[in-house]
Amino acid sequence: MSDGAVAALVTRPSRRSTHSVTLEDVARHAQVSPQTVSRSIRSPQLVSEFTLERVRNSISETGYVPNLAASNLASNRSMTVAAIIPAVSASVFADALQGLEEVLAPEGYQLFIGSTSYRPGHEEELVRAFLGRRPDGIFIVGTDHSPNTGHLLRESKVPVVEAWDLTDAPIDSVVGFSNSAAIRALVEFARDRGYRHPTFAGSFQTGDFRALARRASFEESVDALFPGEPVRVVDSGTATVDYDTGRRLLTETRAAHPETDVLMFASDVFAAGAVLECARAGISVPGDIAVTGFGDFEIGRHLVPTLTTVAVPNRQIGTAAGELLLARMTGGTRETAEIDLGFSVVARESA
Amino acid sequence: MSDGAVAALVTRPSRRSTHSVTLEDVARHAQVSPQTVSRSIRSPQLVSEFTLERVRNSISETGYVPNLAASNLASNRSMTVAAIIPAVSASVFADALQGLEEVLAPEGYQLFIGSTSYRPGHEEELVRAFLGRRPDGIFIVGTDHSPNTGHLLRESKVPVVEAWDLTDAPIDSVVGFSNSAAIRALVEFARDRGYRHPTFAGSFQTGDFRALARRASFEESVDALFPGEPVRVVDSGTATVDYDTGRRLLTETRAAHPETDVLMFASDVFAAGAVLECARAGISVPGDIAVTGFGDFEIGRHLVPTLTTVAVPNRQIGTAAGELLLARMTGGTRETAEIDLGFSVVARESA
């Protein structure tokens, strides 16, 4: 659009929520019928390339914005996907949202996001609010929901992808990895490296069911793989997942369980805080105490020493869920799916 | 809801996008008229507390979900806010989204998000797609937009908050801080600490206008505050903002400009990568080279040495923008505003 055209348009009066440029304006500009403009927007495959080009140019020149809310209500599709995550600012979920967005946006879908702040009651409220907006698909972190939330999602008949864990009773489809198996593999790794006194540390009272699954798996794995060894867990309660909490968990572990030779954290963020504290305090890692994390954040590759951890497919969870939802929403398949993206133990210098 | 009620409801047949539980079902369950149910949802202040409680219980028991799309079309309000950000997974924007969500969600607004991937052409597409969904408000990162994007936003008459920088010509309201003034303050700080050969390093070809503003401010500030000193900038081009790029920028700076006594990074992420590389390579910070960052990420407080940086109000940008939008959307005020949240130089061990 030329600057002249912009200047001409910005002086045109317009009302709130009622865009001044109408379908009829576009039709007049393109010298076609309003029906042709409408058809070009809704069913471009039915319109000749020549006409489509004219209409596209006129839409651009006039600044016309079709009212998708009205159009979607007529077509019974909202072209939206709701994403329900525990926290917007946690980078693991942000990575998945980015993956989801990259798959859905090119197909014309927009993402609605909402965060539960790890409160199950809030999850139900959010699900209700989102369903009221008739999304074409739903992405939800976790496989543990209240009976009401599960019921609302099932009853809605909207394609749903649960993510970040696996379950025997999915609402619909599920994309993730086994948090239990990942911790079991890490405990096995520690035993094979010759460690004898493992301790697990994290924040386990925050409503994060995946953290609880990791803790339960640690307890079972120690019972199975370290016969006779007590199960040691250091719990920071509801503390946030940050470097400060990691430092604190290190200090508490050394005070409560000085025999610990490998300290296994429920997140790389805790582990990084602990490794940096060790550097400052002159504690040798892994000489005095070995450290492992969970998540394979970029920081782990740069710490001194580099961090042994479990790599989990955050971004791929988003892209796989996006592709699954797309297939369901566009009628390509009616099948539900369980996609196990796996994990891997990444051995580096810290353990 | 009891488990029995759930079991009864999940066996009821329902169709895609047409929820089986209707307003009439709720009315029958509550033994009131459909009009009363409708009024309870739209105008609860007009309904007695006793009736409201009955209707609420029946909504919960039946699992009824009102169709907000139809209701919003009737009321000309969508109860949605669009957020247009450069990248979902960058933590600074995720922090602002979290702030925005915390303010808007309790008032019943849902966030639509879209990311431009720092491509101006994509920004216009996104704005067009979002406007088609008739949001009640728009949050957009940055103050540099294409003429078409600016025109579409102005013409829409929807309240808009631009964020993360300040501008003399806002579309509507703006919430941020001066990137230029922040870098100027940091260069002054370096001069006052006695450094003589500053170098600035970052990724400046990614479409990030704020990074370019910081670079331009560095160049002007060195001219003004270090007379006779050449302006040294190390540019990683389009490299992503991560620890690896920070390491690489450190190596390139030491090769190209060995006289550098203070290396000023455009982001804490680069600075953290460089400080960790120095720890590994046995380079003393600040003895051999001082380092500063930008953004005050949590990692900076835990690095050895801790990082000198500029604290900027990421989360507050989200909450302030949310409050501003709320006031505009609910008709509380028609005033546009410019909110400068400021910044502060945080002096720590690295410079």
Automatic annotation (TrEMBL), chains A, B:
Pfam families: LacI, Peripla_BP_3. It comes from Herbiconiux flava. CDD domains: HTH_LacI, PBP1_GntR. Keywords: DNA-binding, Transcription, Transcription regulation. One of its GO terms (molecular function) is transcription cis-regulatory region binding. InterPro entries: HTH_LacI, LacI/GalR-like_sensor, Lambda_DNA-bd_dom_sf, Peripla_BP_I. PANTHER family: LACI-RELATED TRANSCRIPTIONAL REPRESSOR, TRANSCRIPTIONAL REGULATOR. This is LacI family gluconate utilization system Gnt-I transcriptional repressor. It comes from the Bacteria. The keyword Cytoplasm does not apply. Residues 21-75 form the HTH lacI-type domain.
